[in-house]
Amino acid sequence: MELSSQIISLASIAVLPLASFIVGVVYNYEIRKISARLQSRRGPWLLVPKPLRKTLGTTRLFQPLYDVLKLLYKESLVPNTSRTRIFRAAPYVALLCLVAAATLIPFAGYSPFASFELSLVAVLYLLLGVPLAFILGGAASSSPWGAVGSMREAELMLAYETPFVIGAFAVAVMADALSMQRILNVQISQYPFLLLNPFAAAAFLLAIVGKLHLKPFDIPEAEVEIVAGPITEYSGSLLGIIEIGKILLTSVCISLFVDLFLAGGVIPGLQYQLTTFIFLVEGFLIVAFATLIHTLNPRFRIDQALRWYVKIPILLAIVGLAWAYTFRYVHPIILRG
Amino acid sequence: MTTDYPVKTTPLIGYVITEENRGKHKFDDEKCVGCGGCSVICSSGAITESESQFERALKVELARCIFCGRCRDICPEKAIELTPEFELSQTGSKAENAVKVEHVVSLGRCEGCGRPIFPSKQIDAVKRRVDEKMDPSNKETASKDMEVYMRYCLDCRRTHSYVFRIHPRKSY
Amino acid sequence: MGYSEELLAELRQRLGPDLISEFRGNRNTFWVQTQRERVREIAKYLTKEAQGRLIHISTIDKGLDGYEVVYHYAFDHLDRFLHLNVKAALSPDEPEVESVSVDAPESSWSEREMMEFTPVRFMGHPDPRHLWLPFEWPNPVESEKCEHYVDKDGNPQIIVDPLKNVEASLIPLGPYHPFLIEGAYFRVKVEGEEITGADVKLGWNHRGIMKLFEGRSYSRGVFLAERICGICNVTHTTAYLNAVETLSGVEIPDRARHLRTMMAELERIHSHLLWLGVAGDLIGFKTLFMLSWKVREQVLDIFESLTGSRRAPAMNLIGGVRKDVTSETITKTDRRLRSMKAEVKKLIDIVYNHPVVRRRLQDIGRLDLATAKAAGAVGPTARASGWKLDTRWSSPYAAYGSEYTTWDIITEDGGDVWSRTIVRLKEMLVSIEILLQCLEGLNRTAGPILVEAVDPKDFKLKEALGKAEAPRGELMYYLVSDGTNIPHSVRIRTPSFRNNALVPRLLRGHTIADAPIIVGSIDPCYSCTDRVVTIVDSRTGRTTPIPLCNSLSKRSK
After folding, report:
1. Is the pLDDT of residue C182 over 50?
2. Which of A40, A88, A134, C525 has the fewest CB atoms in 10 Å of its CB?
């Protein structure tokens, strides 16, 4: 029994990031399809019309995956004047951090590291590796676009990490635990934290919009201003690794939101398969909402983004934290009396 | 996914163009007389006229054509039509799959020396127009003269103008 | 009539014996020939006190007779159609004249361009660098000496580079950058994100069109003019034909006037919708780009149903238009225009009401009225700074005169990018109004659409100025004929030529994030307007231009 559960744990360390990646690919497809339809375009085909099925297949649902795979077999050109080691290492640093974070986050109610008491803190810490890799890679690329882009990423990181972390801690305060599994259990026994602390949920969601570089916050990768920002000089397989990282980041952040605020798809009394289904449906809905914001907005300037973040999400996060503390102390009093 | 253009296999992408759209030229075999007016007026020098011993060829170089339609406007016989066909790209200037537009008319021969003169259809067209449009007082003389001298090249006409009685001062 | 008489009288008095000859063209256009020494003070008087606009300076090559410098002054914002051309003859051995750009900075680029095309030298020009050619061509020198180039007498000339000695980083916006549709090079010195200095270098799209005109007959020139720009092709033909028809003395029939106006206004709507999409893309609003270009497709469909071609419709010809419209086409077009008006209004609502769009566009790239007048801005760029300047009103052509249509000129006071956006949006609605009036006019007017062209031997004038209002501003053609059917000289001054000169001024003090939309707000069209690689050593800060021949030979290293 012990051995088989250990084997299952070990296997899931490989399977879970892969599952996250596949789900991330579908989320990425969803972003492309919804924004295309809102702009009167088509987007990648969900069901390919019959005359083209022979060349294109039945569905182009995994189009983002094909784009990544195409990049992986191309040559990567590294500028002569760049800091080559940092330049080459940065994408892999991001990927490793994300893979580690993906194993820690419960996916559809299943978590191999359920017993780890500090998994929330570990996840938040690991997710810092992604903007760090961007900043280092951009600065090491010896391109003016990389320099400006890393500067913007650093400023934006200050903006969105604050509500991200405070929102997560508000949830931790309400659940009185720093373990993701415990937070899930508290939500299963009471109500999802989206209902109990909507302020923290709103702040966390707006932080995710910034983290995923969706408009109006795709400032570090603003193509009309700085070509591609930190990732301008990346090409070929290194760019492929960065794209895999972006897809995983989408999946990880959305799963984090669903776990922290929507009880991870678990509804007491329902079977495991339905949990997966509800987990994915909730993820799709969050992505759809984020895509709506992405499609209907232009890009902020970096100073306007910082000002906006201080005005709304950080304020919401602080209100959410205060609410969490009040809730934690008031709630047992209400229950008792 | 990259597919070759044009995607003839899918009916989804319909082409929305009107009949007015100026595309590939079509020379009407019956009407074109080979006068070469289109090559004179061509705005970009795309229509060229070349002559061999037996025929005159009018060739449209589609890569140079700007599809302005002046050739269509100027043609006296209304023989050029610009069809809405616009998919005319080719893989190189000397490609085998290139779309070509060429029209050939046969040249008539001088009965005096045997050299090629104007296209025979052009001669008929000129005779026809004189018949339709010329002032009736001059028409008979002109038609009779044309019957004679239109069969000869310019040199033969000059040489034999007195014998053929087509000299301009013959009536004095 | 009174104003032009006063102006000429004052000019005669000032020039005195130096006034060699005077000539009156048709419709309030005058030519005055004078000595080259008096040119500068006349320029100062005419631009400052008489409030004229120096719209261009042309140099005409007269072969063995030397060169002729023509200064084109426009007074049509004060008196309809009034233009004054001041000419000075230069000898072939010493083609030099004093530069007027110190007193009239709007002519600075015109002089630079003419110095490149002809051997005429404008002495005392503050910035005599090449505009189109690379800075150190045609005398390629070793890369160490590239700060100098050697002129024909062997004298070294120093390239005046305003950005050389600034301690900051250089960001190359162009010539290959996602924000530009065409090639242009904005060298921008930044500190962090803030722009501290800017310089513009053009010439990547230069095709030698003015030279091509001089080898083609007038009627073939119409189709060449159409291909100068992909967005404003009809306006180029209209301006060219205004000049040719003035030369030949031909008056086009009324029906042709209405048709030409229709084409021009449809083009204005299409151009402004294109601009709206591009402006949206430059601030990151891709949805606005897709939506406005979707409405633009309807305009292109109207073009196709009227003429058979979406762009470069090839409708205008000397003496009128080539193709008529039937009454059912008029009804269909009227219906389409009315439905398009509703959609344009929806787009205007989006721009007005979206808070992020407002925040990105307001208070940046400010151009105040005094600078606009001094630098010679034209088109919506000038109208957004409060200057009422529109060729359709000041020198009416086609059916813009008050006897054919009535319409408003849109001006705004802000002078920033937001004002320019609003001016263009409102102009779209005005254009739809003019179009509906033209369609009504077509229903009322019958008659021919083309009149016989005139043999060039019988041309009334030897030189003529033709103007039109392109979507970007005032477009001017200056044609010189020599009695044959091929023009002797053609000089074109496009509106983007004027507006691009303003950009370095507008960029200073703003961030890199604002640079694309500031450049985009003047609606640059580099095809209308115009191989050097500059390497900045990041350690020492030294700028080394590498001429192309050298870079090719060093490739093996």
Report:
1. yes
2. A40
Say which amino acid occupies C323.
K
pLDDT in tens, B58-113: 999 888 889 988 999 899 989 999 888 877 877 776 777 677 788 888 888 888 88
Q: Is residue A10 part of a domain?
A: no
Is the model more confident about C31 or about C157?
C31
Q: Which residues are B60's β-sheet partners?
A: B47, B101
- Tell me how many domains chain A contains: 1
Query: Closest-CA residue in chain B for C225?
Result: B43
| Neighbours, chain A (3 or more CB pairs < 8 A) | B, C
Nearest to B10 among A51, A60, A66 (CB): A51
Residue A336 in domain: no
Question: How many angstroms away from the CA of B10 is the closest CA of chain A?
Answer: 6
B16 touches chain C (CB under 8 A): yes
In a domain, A8, yes or no: no
- Taking the CA of residue B84 and the nearest CA in chain A, the distance in Å comes to 25
- Rounded-to-integer distance, Cα A331 and Cα A329, Å: 6
> Positive or negative CA dihedral for C251, C255, C257, C259?
negative
List CB contacts (< 8 A) between C519 and chain A: none
What would the pLDDT profile of A88-135 be if each residue is shown by its tens digit?
999 999 999 999 999 999 888 788 787 788 999 999 999 999 999 999
| ipTM metric | 0.89
Task: Report if residue A9 sits inside a domain.
Answer: no
A contact test, residue of B7, B8, B9, B13 with most A CBs within 10 A: B9
Cβ–Cβ contact A66 with B under 8 A: yes
Cβ contact C496:C524 at 8 Å: yes
Best residue of C181, C191, C285, C537 to probe chain A, by most A CBs closer than 10 Å: C285
Axis-axis angle for helices A236-261, A129-140 (nearest 10): 160
Task: Name the residue with tokens 């302020």.
Answer: A199
Nearest neighbour of B9 by CB, restricted to A51, A60, A66: A51
Contact C287 A39 (CB under 8 A): yes
Domain interval for residue A262: 15-330
What are residue A168's phi and psi, to 5 degrees?
-65, -40
* CB C247, CB C460: distance < 8 Å: yes
Count CA within 13 A, CB hemisphere, residue C168. Answer: 18
Helix or strand run (H / E) with residue B59: strand B55-60
Question: How far apart are the C-alpha atoms of C264 and C472, rounded to whole Å?
Answer: 12
How many whole angstroms separate alpha carbon A266 and alpha carbon A108? Answer: 7
Interface size between A and B, measured as CB pairs under 8 A:
15
3-state SS assignment for residue B49: strand
Q: Which long-range contacts (CB under 8 A, 24 or more apart) does C17-26 make?
A: C25/C246, C25/C461, C25/C463, C25/C464, C25/C465, C26/C246, C26/C249, C26/C460, C26/C461
Interatomic CA distance for residues A257 and C314, integer angstroms: 59
CA dist A111 → A22, A177, A189, A280, A330 (Å): 17, 16, 18, 16, 31
Q: Report the neighbours of C using a cutoff of 3 or more CB pairs below 8 angstroms.
A: A, B
| Alpha-carbon gap, residue C521 to C425, rounded angstroms | 12
Which B-chain residues 43-82 have CB contacts (< 8 A) with chain C?
A: 43-44, 66-69, 73
**How far apart are alpha carbons C320 and C452 in whole angstroms?**
9
Tell me the longest C-alpha to C-alpha distance in chain A.
Answer: 71
Question: What distance in Å separates the CA atoms of residue C97 and residue C111, rounded to the nearest whole number?
Answer: 11
**DSSP for A37-52?**
HHTT---S-SS--GGG
The pTM (predicted TM-score) of the whole model is 0.89
Residue C396 makes CB contacts below 8 A (sequence gap 6+) with: C80, C402
